[in-house]
Design brief:
Two copies of one chain form a homodimer. Chain A is an alpha+beta fold and about 100 residues long. Helix content of chain A is about 35%, strand content about 35%. The interface of A and B includes residues 42 and 93 of A.
Chain lengths: ~100, ~100
């Protein structure tokens, strides 16, 4: 299992619209191959900055199965108009947890 | 509850030493006031980049109770020599999870 970490700056004043749109996207994620969980984090120090922490079985489940699907276009149609710039996306393996 | 997100670049070649040192630090975290959980993530795209995701009851539990303690000095003594630069630290609230 891997974690997708996407850092997204939202246009100031549109934070609540963005949060509501993410809430409406649950069905999209829940039907994706290899999707495991989704967390939306909001920065305390920079309140227009959000991070998605999304767990997938494999990197390919995110980068190929989801990114190249019509559902990805639907997701971006829901939330993309609130982005102040392109998301910064990275993936991680969890080395240790306690 | 809040999440501390600390992004740390490790000196290339010292990744396994750093991971072992983090493993040795479990006792330090487990005795902190308001500490809830700890995850060590390693970037797939940039393998010398790590992120700590640490959950605390409050921001103060991290920034005051832990940061101003002797235990913080012990933690940094364990891991600090492997850092390639100062960690970038931010805190988040979880807005939504599913």
């Amino acid at each position: 299992m891997i974690t997708e970490i996407a850092q997204i700056e939202i246009k100031p004043g549109h934070e609540k619209d963005f949060e509501a749109a993410v809430g409406q996207s649950q069905g999209i994620f829940k039907r994706q191959k290899g999707w495991r969980s989704f967390e939306l984090h909001r920065s305390i120090e920079k309140p227009s900055r959000y991070r998605l922490h999304i767990k997938w079985d494999t990197l390919e489940n995110h980068m190929v199965d989801f990114r190249e699907s019509a559902d990805f276009q639907e997701w971006r149609a829901l939330v993309g108009s609130y982005f102040a710039g392109p998301p910064e996306v990275e993936h991680t393996n969890t080395v240790l947890s306690f």
